[in-house]
Structures are given as C-alpha cells and as structure tokens.
Amino acid sequence: MDFAIDAADAELRDRVRAFVIEKIIPYESDPRLTEHGPTDALRVELNGLARAAGLLAPHVARHYGGLGLSHRQRAIVFEAAGYSALGPIALHCAAPDEGNMHMLEVVANEEQKERYLRPLATAQVRSCFAMTEPHPGAGSDPGQLATRADRDGDHFVINGEKWLITGADGAGFMIIMARAFDGEQDLGATMFFSPLPAAGIRIKRTMHSLDSSFTGGHAHVMLENLRVPADAVLGEIGQGLRYAQLRLAPARLTHCMRWLGAANRAHDIATAHACKRMAFGKPLIEHEGVGFQLADNELDMYVSRLTIQEVAWRLDQGQHARHESSMAKVIVSEALYRIGDRCVQVLGGIGLTDETQVERIFRELRAFRIYDGPSEVHRWAIANRLARQQGRKP
Q1: 38: which strand partners?
Q2: Burial 282-315 (b: 16+ CB within 10 A, else e)
Q3: CA 262/CA 356 separation, integer angstroms
Q4: 8 Å CB contact between 13 and 91
Q5: What digits encode the pLDDT tens for the residues 201-240?
Q6: 286: helix, coil or strand?
C-alpha cells in the first residue's frame, strides 16, 4: 500500500477544505441549524453552494452526477468536509444518504437507480434507512427484526414500528427492512422502497438526541398497512441482511472519515486557545498538563488516519473488510471521543459553552460511538471471528 497522496487528490482535498472554511463555516450560526439538525431550506442552500463549486456527491459515480472517488480518495475529502458539521451536509456525503447511495449503486436494478439513486445523488431529495426498532425488535441484533411484510397478490403489506430513523422527516423516500412472509412461510429479511410521504407511514415524533447534525433529526415511525408493489423490493427477497452488511462496512468507515475532520477542528480550536491563554506566567500549552493532552490528540489523529486509509485501501481492492471495518469503527470512534474530551478540558469553562464549536463537536463525537454499532457489539463480533478461526485450526 502506498500512502502517498497524488497532486490531483491533494488539490481536491485543499479545495474542499477551503470551501468549508470560506463558504460553510459562516452558516454555523444560522438560525436554521436547529436541535434536530439543519432544516431542508438550509440543506438545499448548502447543496447549491457545493454544486456551484463542483463538489456535490463526491462519492457517487460520475454517471449519476458525482465525482466517482475511490474509498481512499473519499477518506481525505470526507475528512476535509467534516471540518464543519455542515460540510458533509453541503457536499451531500452525510449519513444516511451517503450509505444509501453506495448501496443503491451496488444492489438496485437500473429502473430503481433512475427512480431513486439519480435524484438522491443530485440532491433533489433526501432519503432514510428504516431498520432499527424499539424493544423487542431489532437493534444491535438484526435477528430480532419484528416488522412484517406480508405478500398480498402482487403487493406486500408492511406493518411495524421503527425508531431512531435518521432523516425520515422530509425525506423523499425510505428504504425499509422487514421480514417478508408468503402466508406462513418466512422469506427472510428484505429491503423495500417506499416514496415519502405515503399512506401507511406516519412519523409519530421526532426524538430528542445528543447530536444535532442530521437534516430531519431522528424519527419514531409507524408503518401501518403500508402497501408496496412487488417491484419495490430492493435486490432479492430474503437478502436484506446481506445488503445491510454491504452498506454498513463502508458506512462505518465514512463516519470515521467525517468525524476525524470534526475532531481536527476541535483540536485546532483548543491548540489556538492554549497558545494564547496565559496562566501562571506562561501560555497554557507550555504546562505539561495541557501540552501533553494536545500531544495525545496528535497521536490519536495519526493512528485514526492510518487506520482509515488502510481499510479504505482494502475496500478499493474489492474486499468486504467486515472485520477490519469493525476494528476501525472501535479504534477511531474511541480515539476521536478522547480528542473531543481533551479539547473541552483544555478550553476549561469556555469549553462547556457555545462560544466555540468544541462543545457541539464533543456531543457529536459521543454520539458517533453509537452509530453503526456501538463498540461493545463490534468487540463481540471481533471475538466471535477469533473463536471461529480457532475452531478451524487442526
């Protein structure tokens, strides 16, 4: 693996970083940035800026209007975009849309790509992915999937309850994970498309959460006799869990990329503060109790960046990289949380306020430890793979 960044990729990274700093950061005080994320009006305005700059949907194939970047190229561009929480929203490479676009490119048929992927890739609409359910349904264990899709002639009728569905409020379509049945025959977990709004899909409430970066927030959704045609199935019936893994491995990594940019922003703010703030006769950074925390930030960012690049390289080689992406999610999410925590500490009292972006970044980094599987689930999966490997030994 060659870690060198070629000149064209470096130029694109620098262009994204300059775009975020000059055009997007001024929007961080916009009143349309609410506790449930940026409003759709703000999102559309930011998308327009990125479109004008030629930076919209950098991860999507050029055929659908994107830049067609590899996973390694995405790593440096998404990190640059993440320097502001609004950067990925502007470039249209934030979750859940980014992961949905990747999955649709891999799984959807041509008609579905034209109907759903093209308008999504060009930011004409947003999307959402409805998998997580309240107890006793599916959470970290997808085997507990409780939502049903019962075949009725050439349609399916879907009933169930979903929550923590990011971006559902205002989305143009939903991808629903449900257990398909033909009479009493369980056909297995299956993904279905539904345009939004739709009779049979009701947003019960928008849930209040620690984070506030995603347009539409996180919704509690009721599926009540939702009728969809058989051609609304994404891919094949019964293959939903496999498709979820195709979506999740890259999505875990792109979360790492974006939040590395946010952690870098917090670190820059804390470092600038420590260099100018005086205490006991010298700048804070010259006190080891502060300087060493910033040094540890550098160490954590260095390891995180290398981890992301290595797993991105594996994905570019066509590997599934499930084991490696699980490790990366744990390594990076925990390292970035430590960075955010140290930055709050270095800033002292001001770190607890909205005088800087650090307080908000810290909240977002804490939430990142839950997205796409908490550390405990990934450690459990890693341990299970170790056990299986041991069992294969003679």
Answers
A1: 33
A2: eebbeeeebbebbeebeebbeebbebbbbbbbbb
A3: 13
A4: no
A5: 999 999 999 999 999 999 999 999 999 999 999 999 999 9
A6: helix
The pTM of this model reads 0.96
Give ∠ CA 134-138-142 in degrees, rounded to 5.
165
Dihedral over Cα of 24, 25, 27, 33: its sign: positive
Burial 95-126 (b: 16+ CB within 10 A, else e): bbbbbbbbbbbebbeeebbeebbebbbbbebb
- The CA–CA distances, whole Å, from 41 to 38, 55, 81, 127, 191 equal 8, 19, 20, 16, 29
Q: What is the DSSP string of 360-379?
A: HHHHHHHHHTTTTS-HHHHH
Q: pLDDT digit string (tens) for 130-180?
A: 999 999 999 999 999 999 999 999 999 999 999 999 999 999 999 999 999
Residues 6+ apart with CB under 8 A from 344: 351, 352, 358, 359, 362
Q: What is the pLDDT of residues 54-71, one digit of tens each?
A: 999 999 999 999 999 999
270 vs 93: CA distance, rounded Å: 27
> CA-CA distance, 228 to 244, in Å (whole number)?
20
